[in-house]
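Hi team,

As requested, here is the filled-out complex form for the alpha-D-glucopyranose run. I kept the field names the same as last time so the parser does not choke. Let me know if anything looks off before we queue the next batch.

— J.
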Amino acid sequence: MKVLAAASEIYPLVKTGGLADVVGALPGALQPRGVAIRTLVPAYPAVAKGLERGSIVHRYGNLFGGPATVIAGQAHGLDLLALDAPHLFKRPGNPYLGPDGKDWPDNAQRFAALALAAADVARGAIKNYAPDILHVHDWQAALAPAYLKFGRGGPKTVITIHNIAFQGQFPAALFASLKMPQAAFAIDGIEYYGNVGYLKGGLQCADAITTVSPTYAEEIRTPEFGMGLDGVLRARRDALSGIVNGIDTEVWNPATDPNIAAAYDTATLAKREVNKREIEKRFGLERDDGMLYCVVSRLTGQKGMDIFAGVLDRMVVSGARLALIGQGEAQIEKDILAAARRHKGRIGVVTAYDEALSHLLQAGADAILVPSRFEPCGLTQLYGLRYGCVPVVARTGGLADTIIDANEAALAAGVATGIQFTPVDATSLENAMARAMRLFADRNTWRNLQRRGMRTDVSWTRSAAAYAALYHKLHKAS
Ligand code: ADP
Ligand code: GLC
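And here is what came back:
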């Protein structure tokens, strides 16, 4: 089974969030199941630099304003197709934002180009390569199923929603430049409230829709979570399913992790203290054996970071400390940095993106806080489980599907792995943190929570089987 994937990020070459982790992990996870995934990504400088043994396999004279090529090559064991369109992708920094922190003004063209190239490769543009399935991720690749449906057709398609908050909506005037037949600008195509909707078009035209947890698959069919697309998703409910993300258990393995100060496993949990001491050093925290929370997150409203900023003073009063790494919305960053200044030695903040440091936090903090308002899947709570960093999470989306709350029944049955709270507001977040402090005070209970988390299967095994089954079902129907 040959699958062509298309996405705007792929770990370890280019990453702004969990999308990259998932796109980078799926090929390795599916390979043992006889599924060969080749991934088309834009040739940003970081991708071009990482590509080995590249050779040009397709050329465009003019792709949305300039010449372009598709380069086949390898990187970090990944089988890649890089869309080399210098006028669109040869820019430093973040894949979506210019140096002013705003979206690149030509994102509509950039990601239409990615989708068009995906559609072309899917329908045979590359010699001796005929994929059985096209699997696109998020709005940046979402036009591809529409290009197939309103073009000459092609293989069956899957679209995965990683975050419905990002939809790729552009003015209707853009439509003419997309080179689609007029019929595509309609309710069963890419028209969306009079505008062009990339994600909407993908949801309308793909043969199957997945999202990254079963709970989120239900939530996005409601107006509260669907962000305008709930109607489309209700209409297509038979095509929609939720498959929870796994993590790369080799990159994330506390027994072998080169990024942490001391490696450990379930039998040597006491060694986590060495990592805690290292965190204290790196984040300027007082030495202390009490509760140390960590946060590894984009600092945004989605992640509930504004609510979190509001409880920091009371968190410190409760005796806990915090080490946080993240960046995002200016006001939230400002509020959190101000709290760190008020509570020197108790709250340490690093406003950078630092993959290695995120490993250290999971390896040395006692608990990780994830108070998201919505969370399609979430990966940091899975890393937390794997590292014995007990997740304290909002009961929403993938957080609800991956953590078992330490309520009385779950504790008695010996199945709890973390703490959940709802609704997502300051009061219930504080209650959850108070509950965490009580459990933490009971050494045995806490150790059991940690060990159970570390023994939870957070690998790709089950979900890879679900994707493989979906590919086969679609392929059989074609
Ligand atoms: P999202 O994709 O919505 O941001 P996820 O939990 O799915 O949320 O994925 C976030 C990914 O980004 C995780 O791999 C997490 O460890 C990583 N991450 C987020 N912020 C930082 C940061 N400041 N430094 C290092 N890694 C980070
Ligand atoms: C998105 C979501 C996150 C999910 C990730 C990977 O960025 O916000 O919840 O884990 O995609 O699927």
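Two things worth flagging: The two ends are 13 Å apart (CA to CA). The chain has a mean pLDDT of 97.

Thanks,
J.
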